[in-house]
Structures are given as C-alpha cells and as structure tokens.
Amino acid sequence: MTCPAIRVPRACGLPNDSAYNREPTQMGWYAMAAQRVANLSVLDVGCGTGAGLSVLRAGGAKLVEGQDVDPALEGEGIIISTIDALPAGYADVVTCIDCIEHVMDDLAFFNNLRRIARRELIVSTPNHAVSHAFNSCHAREYRIADFARFFRPDVHLVGSADGRCYHAVRNDGSDDTEPHQCGIWRIR
Questions:
Q1: CATH number assigned to the domain comprising residue 136
Q2: 182 in helix, strand or coil?
C-alpha cells in the first residue's frame, strides 16, 4: 500500500448511484487516451458500465475490452475478472480511469496494471487537495505530489473538471488547484 486507506470504500456503480455513469472529467481522460491507441489492443480496467469503451474504439484501437469485478456489469466486450487473473502483457495499452482510489491495496493493484500492460498504462484519479475524499466509495485519494512520488509516472498531467483542459504537472505547487490528475507509464 502507498499509504493507509482512509476507509473501507462502500460499493458503488449501481444504477441509482451518482457514480454509475462516467462524468465529463472521466470522459475527457478517455478522449485523451483515445489519441494514443490507434492500431493497438486496449483493456479498460474498472470499466463499470463500459461508457468509455466507445471513445477508445473511436480512437482506432484494433481491440477494446473492459474489465470489472461486478458480475452485474457483464456485457459485450466486458470481462468479469480480477486483474491478477489476467496474463502478463494482456493488452498493448491498459487504461484505469478513476478506479485506483477505490482499491484497498493500491500498490498491488498498480503493479498488476503494469504487469498486464504491454506498451503503456494510463491511470487517472481525483486530486485530494480539491476533492477532500468526499466520495465514500474511495478508499483513499492522492495529492498530486504524493501520486508522483508513489507511482512515478513518465508523464503526469492534471485536468479540469469539465474534462477539456489538460497540462503537464508543473511541480511548483500550483497544480494542487486542479481537480484531477493522470499518469502515463511507458512499459519497457
């Protein structure tokens, strides 16, 4: 674990739950990821209802699948499984859009994400300095500096709540006003 969880997260993703569908911020990260997936296989870990899969397909990926652990989310192109059950190098690109904050053992989860990604890993998560872990479905959240220290992304971006404005982390402390962050790792 990178740091202790602040709570055991409650289950989320039910149709009457506000977290059921993806919000503009999350769809913005999918749009950013879609620019990186042409002719590659993609696995979206923690895909929920699969709302982001069509965005990734529109980016020209040769294969797009989603993964989730909730059997209620089973559907076309969605694998119901834990990620530790997937083979190493399962997909060229692995996306994990706003999922890591829901996981109790985030470091083991992150290591499995790296293991199943053949070329690139893209992980987004809220910035705790803005969201203050208000969502009871989250086990923990990360400030931008902590996310960089724990996970060491090759590219670290921050983004706006409407999912339209992204820029590289400046590391001068001013990025802690941004509501969201994303790391990109190149798998070697």
A1: 3.40.50.150
A2: strand
